Amino acid sequence: MYMNYNGYRIEQVRTDDAALRESQALLQLVFEKHADKFSFDYVKWMYAENPVGQIVGFNAYADDILAAHYVAMPIYLNIQGRKTLGLLSLNTVTHPDHRGKRLFTVLAEQTYQYAAENGYQFVVGVANANSTHNFLKNLHFNLVGSLTLKVGFGTCIYPQRTYTFSHFWDQDTLGWRLRNPSMKYYKNDEIITGPIAVGCKKLVCHNGAEMVSLPKLRFRPLNLYIGYGVELRKGFYFSLPKFIKRSPFNLIFRDLTGGTLPQMTSDNVFFELIDFDVA
């Protein structure tokens, strides 16, 4: 699929090895401080090996230079008890020499048009402070709210209620997710966790944790929780100061069906770190 925009050639993202290395190079250039994370194995795992489907997105080229890149990951959500195919908004990168040309907006809208025509019913994402305005104003997303972010000790209670929205995990998709080449996962008290620093672990996943067997992470009494749906009042948890919490985790949602899906709100969605954090 090809189109032109202000002298740029717009092409659908491919997942052959040469195309993956091209995407990897731009990701490493833009995210220079975190370049090690974007290994070839990591990009291939993320873009080409997802059992739900290969990555969906578009590139912008200036001659043979990859100028901008946007992709979204196929996922399933349980929506009112129905397994529903959609996309998780993922990587947005623009070459430093080609910024200010509205390329992200063009690539994203092209992605959503393609997705709607090919059976995807929604796009969900977690946006930072810099990108939230563009998603809301130009790409017609709804702001669900800022995810809860707390650090502390003690028990996390996962309510035994049915949410209108929750991620659908099965053995294949969760197994693939936990094979992330850039991260090691553990399980503590039926919660999948990941190390952060000495004494601290992040609470990654409860939904589906019973399906996998993982080693226990020791010597991490402090917990980091990011998401919606967990009751933290049984422990001692506190919000991070604003000078540490550099950017909000804004949950955003776009219905691609023309309005047939229910509205996602902070009260009707169960959303965990594993549902969006692929690092």
Question: What would your notes on this structure say?
Answer:
Strands 1, 2, 3, 4, 5, 6, 7, 9, 15 and 16 form a 10-stranded mixed β-sheet that branches. The protein is built from 5 helices and 16 strands. The protein has helices at residues 17-30, 40-48, 103-117, 129-137, 171-177, and strands at residues 2-5, 8-12, 56-62, 65-79, 82-94, 122-127, 142-146, 148-153, 165-167, 186-188, 191-197, 200-205, 222-227, 236-239, 250-255, 269-270.
CATH superfamily of the largest domain: Gcn5-related N-acetyltransferase (GNAT)
Q: Considering DSSP H and I runs of 4 or more, what fraction of the residues is helical?
A: 10-25%
Cα-atom Rg, whole angstroms? 19 Å
Number of strands: 16
Q: Could you give the distance between the termini?
A: 30 Å
Poorly predicted parts:
none
CATH structural fold name of the largest domain: Aminopeptidase
CATH architecture of the largest domain: 3-Layer(aba) Sandwich
- Supply the helix-strand structural class: alpha+beta
Strand proportion, as a percent range, falls in 35-45%
Relevant terms:
279 residues; alpha+beta; Aminopeptidase; ten-stranded mixed beta sheet; six-stranded mixed beta sheet; 16 strands
